[in-house]
């Protein structure tokens, strides 16, 4: 989901989508006797839809926005690709699930109204932002300085990293990003109707965002990383990949801190 490397791009894309795709759907109307309206004599039927948590047109707009945002590379994508290179495609799902857990926490924060508090408090925002930036820089430096090791033992150590370890790393990569909360504060209202059940709407929004992000992270970015695995067969290839992903992590961390 939204990441510190591309907040500006994601925000512009989302706002455009919200403006262009979110369509107001007419709510159910009744006559004085409480009956649903019938089709007019000209044969043009009037819509008489029962209220639902999220209208189909609104959900399609939400789905489109989620796809565009998820495909925009960021810290989550980098983390997913790094995991896929180290432990393989199947086990990389643990890092992806950690990222989704962070996303759900951020969505709960926004739904509970705490997002407004964080966005309105320069101190709280700065503390979370700099912690997130420091964590990404730490991951990047560690990756950059990792020495190539062609031994079977080293390969086994990387390949057998615990699922919990990847889950926690994915959780912190996304959670320590206050800009994601601010982004959700701007993003969610375009898909929420105050005259409908907020619980139902937030549940549908959460499921849509998570399912889309898991699909894109695992079946796109993790698959893309498989193409780099042939480079891990040599010391030079390992060194280049470590430096590449280390640099990307550090760059994302710096952007989170200064933008």
Backbone shape: globular
Rounded mean pLDDT is: 79
In N-to-C order, the SSE pattern is: HHHHHHHHHHH
* Estimated share of beta-strand residues: under 5%
Profile the largest sheet.
none
Estimated helix fraction: 55-70%
Number of domains: 1
Unreliable runs? 4-51
Number of β-strand runs:
0
Instruction: List the total number of helices.
Output: 11
- Structural class, from helix and strand content? mainly alpha
> What is the CA-CA span between the terminal residues?
18 Å
* Rg from Cα: 22 Å
Task: Based on the model shown, name its key terms.
mainly alpha
Molecular structure report:
This protein is an all-alpha fold. It has one domain (7-258). It contains eleven helices and no strands. It has helices at residues 7-21, 56-70, 75-87, 93-111, 114-120, 122-145, 152-159, 163-175, 178-187, 198-226, 235-258. The radius of gyration is 22 Å and the shape is globular. Mean pLDDT is 79; it is low at 4-51.
Helix-strand blueprint:
Elements: H1 7-21, H2 56-70, H3 75-87, H4 93-111, H5 114-120, H6 122-145, H7 152-159, H8 163-175, H9 178-187, H10 198-226, H11 235-258
Helix pairs in contact: 1-2, 1-9, 2-10, 3-4, 3-8, 3-10, 3-11, 4-8, 4-9, 4-10, 5-9, 6-11
Task: Give a short overview.
It is a multi-pass membrane protein. With 259 residues, the chain is mostly helical.
